[in-house]
Amino acid sequence: MKLKAIVELWDNGTYSIYVTNTKKHNISAQGKSTEEAKANLMDAINDYAAMYKETGKTVPKEIDSPEFEYRYDMASFFNYFNWINVGNLAKKAGINASLLRQYKSNLSFASEKQTKKIQECINFLGNELAAVRL
Q1: So where are the chain's domains?
Q2: 102 and 133 in contact (C-beta within 8 Å)?
């Protein structure tokens, strides 16, 4: 089952991930980085699975070998993909670079329209990269 995992950067620098589409389980984790929070999320899922196995119950499909669809807030996205040049992305997306840097730093929050422009630009670049052959 593909689990929708929301990644957020809190004001205190902690990364939080919570899963939104499980029926029986409240799955979340935190960490000092996105990578640590993702590892802690897998630990939480593995703990649930171990609990089922220890009690002789079948591990529910929703937590048995899950795949994740990660959704990032703007700050956690740019932190995790820190190799993306914000100025060049802003130019490609048609957004003011200074404004995009504010989104990246959680100093300002993108409107739905701005978020859509950024999302479309990132998807476009991803598709272009996926088509590259070296």
Answers
A1: 2-72, 84-130
A2: no
- Collapsed DSSP state (helix, strand, coil) of residue 77: helix
Number of H helices, E strands in the chain: 5, 4
Domain 2-72, what architecture? 2-Layer Sandwich (3.30)
Please check whether residue 89 is in contact with residue 120, taking contact to mean a CB–CB distance below 8 angstroms: no
Q: Is the pLDDT of residue 118 over 90?
A: yes
Mean model confidence pLDDT for the chain = 93
* Structure tokens, 131: 């088509």
Sign of CA dihedral 123, 39, 17, 101: negative
Q: Model's pTM, two decimal places?
A: 0.83
Model confidence at 47: pLDDT above 80: yes
* Inter-residue contact 14 to 31 (CB < 8 Å): yes
In the block, tokens 């950024």 appear at 118
